[in-house]
Amino acid sequence: MKKILIIATAILVFILLLIFALNSMRRSQEVPNKTQITPTTVPFNTNINDVVDNVALTPIEIQPEVVEAAKSISPFETDSFIYEYSPEVDRIIVTEKTLGGQTDFEQWITANGLPELAQPNNSVIYDSLIDNEMVKDPEPLLKFFDIFLNFGQSVFPVSAPAVTPTPAPAQSSSSSSSGSSSNLSSNSQSNAKYTYYAQCNGYGNIPLPSGCNVCEAGCGPTTVAMIAASYLGNQYNPKTIVDLYDEKGYYLSCAGSRYSDAKAALEGLGLKTTSYLTYNFDEADVVASDFKKYIDAGWTIFTLANYCDKGCGHYFWVTEVQDGKILAYDPYYGKSTTPPYNENSRYPFPKYRLAFGVKK
């Protein structure tokens, strides 16, 4: 009997130590979520709450020549961070892909001769793609040990309510009410190959998660919707893609959206994409040959370009290049014509900044 008691005590001590270790692990894994950097353009206030180790975190002023140098190496992406300049907010946006993303960015930007941007400043905004799903939850093991320790007691778990997915919007049909169905159908066109959606009219009033609506700032998700509908089926439209952005936590507001999120969304739907093609606000005659090579190889091109010298960033989908003319499914400028729209008709605009290939 004494021997059994000793063995039982040893097992109990082992289990308690294991639970303690798992709890410690869980607390340490929660730290990154608590210290995750929130994007902001508001300067730090110098007060007692801003002092760490008696050093005030006062942001430094970045000189214009440093900002221009920073723009010249944008965009850039590694396994741990995305670096890009946003003309909409006139800031550098650094998006962490892993927990060490900010540190890797600071080392990279310093190695590129711009150490000022690694210091607290008002020219860099930090964002994060990290979520709780990236950290394994030890909770199931803790629940198991809880059941084990309370064996014989009433420990059957109470079922949680089932999560019901948000239903997709109803498809237009002849039995639909005349109001919304006619607006939505007039806002899209299909030919033998691709589906076109305009970002205004029928889909224009769909609200974006962080403000404004699709007509005002939704060229990104509308372009993703055209690509998804064309390759995967008409169950995808601007509404379903806005819902997808919201579900994934992708940035979507009055300032527009991020090309990295569009790429992630398309890949998440099962489509293939290429690496980024980067340009320095180049005109059509510079980029047309690149686009044609990709299109001849079976790709289409998700594109970001500027429509005025001070910005006017806009996304569209290049499907053809004919005799130097860049033809695209353009969710805004192409709304009054049968697609594809000739982007060269506004020459010297658009001025191309970035693109990537996409196909099924």
Structural features, described:
With 360 residues, the protein is of the alpha+beta class. Among the domains are: 48-129, no CATH class; 191-359, Alpha-Beta Complex (Cathepsin B, Chain A), CATH 3.90.70. It is built from 10 helices and 17 strands. The protein has helices at residues 2-34, 64-72, 101-111, 139-149, 178-186, 214-217, 219-232, 238-248, 259-268, 284-296; strands at 51-52, 55-56, 76-77, 81-86, 91-96, 124-128, 188-190, 195-197, 252-253, 256-257, 272-273, 277-282, 300-308, 311-322, 325-329, 341-342, 351-359. Strands 11, 12, 13, 14, 15, 16 and 17 form a 7-stranded antiparallel β-sheet that branches. It has a 4-stranded mixed β-sheet with strand order 3-4-5-6. A two-stranded antiparallel sheet has the order 1-2. β7 and β8 (195-197) form a beta hairpin. α7 packs across α8 and α7 (219-232) runs parallel beside α9 (259-268). It is globular, with a radius of gyration of 26 Å. The N and C termini lie far apart (69 Å).
TL;DR?
The protein is α+β, with helices and mostly antiparallel strands and 360 residues long.
State the helix count. Answer: 10
Mean pLDDT over the residues:
76
Number of strands: 17
CATH C-level class of the domain at 191-359 is Alpha Beta
Query: How far apart are the termini?
Result: 69 Å
How would you summarize the topology of this molecule?
Blueprint: H1 2-34, E1 51-52, E2 55-56, H2 64-72, E3 76-77, E4 81-86, E5 91-96, H3 101-111, E6 124-128, H4 139-149, H5 178-186, E7 188-190, E8 195-197, H6 214-217, H7 219-232, H8 238-248, E9 252-253, E10 256-257, H9 259-268, E11 272-273, E12 277-282, H10 284-296, E13 300-308, E14 311-322, E15 325-329, E16 341-342, E17 351-359
Parallel strand pairs: 5-6
Antiparallel strand pairs: 1-2, 3-4, 4-5, 7-8, 9-10, 11-17, 12-17, 13-14, 13-17, 14-15, 15-16
Helix pairs in contact: 1-4, 7-8, 7-9
